[in-house]
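During the second half of the funding period, the structural biology subgroup turned its attention to how the target accommodates small molecules. The most pressing case was ribulose-5-phosphate, which had performed well in the primary screen but for which no bound structure existed. We therefore specified the complex as follows and requested a full 3D prediction, including the ligand pose.
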Amino acid sequence: MNEKKEVGEKAVEYVKDGMVVGLGTGSTVFYTIMKLGQLVQQGLTIKGVPTSEQTEQLAIELGIPLGSFEEVEQIDVAIDGADEVDPELNLIKGGGGALLREKIIAAAAKTFIVVADSDKNVDTLGTFPLPIEVVPFGYEMTVKHIKELGGSLKLRQKDGKTYLTDNGNYIIDSSFQEIMHPRELEKNLNLIPGVVDNGLFVGMADRVITFKDKKLTTIVRSNV
Ligand code: 5RP
């Protein structure tokens, strides 16, 4: 069974005609976007707002009409993957490097839905390296400040070069092991000059579509 496909396709049930839809990035939400492409071919009218250039390209190929924040005030539903999900539906995101646009779009959405295969479910966040987006200027100093919060750090590389996000920034992959207080860490990291944002998404996900005990399950945040 392909859990990514099942959870990804399930999420389209939350998309209705006329909606503005935040389109996430990664190999799970890929299936959501593929399915939306099919539905658009069959007459569904939506406007997508992509979280990355990679997703924008895919949506264009599938004929999904796109919009930007110049035209849309609010997103009806945003759908995206995650690298880790804890029992309170807090997340680590940014494995694919798109965390900043993903967070802007999730924060603009009335409903934020996460699609995650069972491997992503953890008791405590932190085994997956937490991505932190930093501006290139003075990043050596920014790294020193991040180190003071604990954890080992690595500047992300791709094809032998320093990885650049769609926003022209660097990603520091940081290992904090067990993140006992995600809300505090999210805020404290973002107070460091040079940090643009980090991959902790605390209290943002409204629903997580995942597999528990081999069953497709939708977990709803308790105050939703
Ligand atoms: C990209 C992300 C992805 O949503 C996250 O890395 C999960 O990806 P995948 O669905 O491929 O496992 O945050 O920045």
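Two results from this model are relevant to the next phase. The mean pLDDT is 97. Residues 130-199 form a domain with the Alpha-Beta Plaits fold (CATH 3.30.70.260).
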